[in-house]
Prior knowledge:
The protein has about 280 residues and is an alpha/beta fold.
Amino acid sequence: MSRLAARFDALRAAQRSGLVIFVTAGDPHPELTVELLHALVAAGADVLELGVPFSDPMADGPVIQRASERALAHGVDLRRVLDLVRAFRQTDTTTPVVLMGYLNPIEQMGVERFARTAAEVGVDGVLTVDLPFDEEPEHAAALRSAGLDSIFLLAPTSGPGRAQAVAAQASGFLYYVSVRGVTGAGQVDMADVRSQVEALKAYTDLPVGVGFGVRTPQAAAQIAAFADAVVVGSAVIEKLEAAAAAGINGPAALKGAVELVRTLRAGIDTAVGEGR
Length: 276
């Protein structure tokens, strides 16, 4: 059983919604990334989504774009991201790690080599933002052969037919985009998101995570009442960015982000009594 499947099985058994936390590898500094990942887990993250820095991130809002720019300035590329995962796995062999990024760095490395190396260092799943599920069978086959889960985004504009087709090919979990736009933008229409997630659950057994516009413990709690996981990224990265702007360096720069994750976890856990 994969780490993602085991984690979501455990969450389901405990009637809890999961917390997926996104951070960009190498931000605020490569030397802090592994420490940050461990601190996020200790604060309540169930799954780690590690962004691969990229110069033209089409799905990311300005907060995550700036995080990529900072990481790229530190020389963090796909190979270094994989090295960071390897270092994280030296002391954490259970927390699922998903890489989120874009196709260009994977193609530069070579799809089969990337999949093989990612699996070897301890990656569990891959979300390639600019690769539609039906356009690159070689990519999907390489991930499947390496034992990696293929995770796909589903937008509010995805029709029922496409959503069912994506669900049939995906593994690990489905990532439902809660707003029309880029990461961190817009207000979440909870009633609409809930109806869309419930529709998805009618034809897939995969866990459904919701993200892109979740910023507060209150919003996380609302989503946790009907989704299998809540995904938060921009709000966490804003805390790291604020620390850097205040001249805070070293481990102290992680404190605000870690505390936010604690409050998100606490908010999500209030949804346990709502029928999850």
